[in-house]
Write a structure and sequence with these properties.
The chain has about 300 residues and is of the alpha+beta class. The protein has five helices and 16 strands. The protein is globular. Keywords: Signal.
Length: about 300
Amino acid sequence: MHLHTTSFFGSAILLSIMFASAATAQLLGCDAVGCPVDEYRNAQCEIGNATLKAIGVANVTSVLDSRPLTWTLGLQELKGNGTNPTFDRNFYLGTPPYLQLNDTKGCALFFEGVSENLTSSSGDQLNKFTCSSALAEACVSDLIAQAQSSYEGFDDEFGGGSDLCNQLRDTLVNKPPTTCSGVKGSWGTIVAQHLTGISAPAKIEQKQCHPTTGRDYDLSLIASIRKEASGRELSKLAPILNAITPVMTIISKGNDTGVELSCLKLVEMKANQTVDSQPSKGSTSLPRSSFALFATIAAVAYFFVL
């Protein structure tokens, strides 16, 4: 008896990423950047050592350049014979070519501990989604203000050394704004990564896929967070599929410090949404969520061959 697995993305489930700043909303996926696809229209975006099944790209303003930075979140399904499916959520920073980072300091904070407990008040209306759709507006503004104030203070104390990002993380873990007290989950699970300096990750190879909107942009893998579902049913996969991850980007150059709070969420690509072929009279044919199909795929993804 042999045990086989098939890709959870071997059918019409193809996801892109919602990425929105606290003030604006923007969603771009594989359709926008031209990801290679297989015969089933599933993305096959090879970058570095990963093959991404879904991506999402968004611009982030900074004090570095008139051109924006970009964040790309890529979802990779890991191969294995285990009973529980496992995924990597990879976060890539895109930078304009030849960008000068002299006298520049930067950090990224990923609020993973609360991601599975956040929901969007704007529902599926992607053009209205902001971090304030998932967090209280006062929480968003207070997080940004506290981060900027703390970062500038730590910069004076540590001179931009290796402890700066960790100290900022610890401050937000131990003393989050009171306006964020309603957030459920493990607030203390915040991943901190340097974006510049000797601790910054190196640029990675881009093969046939260029998963960013910036022309000729360089990409660096900043963080990779592994998630294991507790089962193959939709209810077990939902925490990963529906997670909203707040991401804080802090960049300083000279006397200027910029802080951006963005929220990332997995959504379907338009090309892989299904529509009602015969809508009822007087109604509009709208895409149906194919997350429900994920449970069906998961149920047959694990099978035995005698």
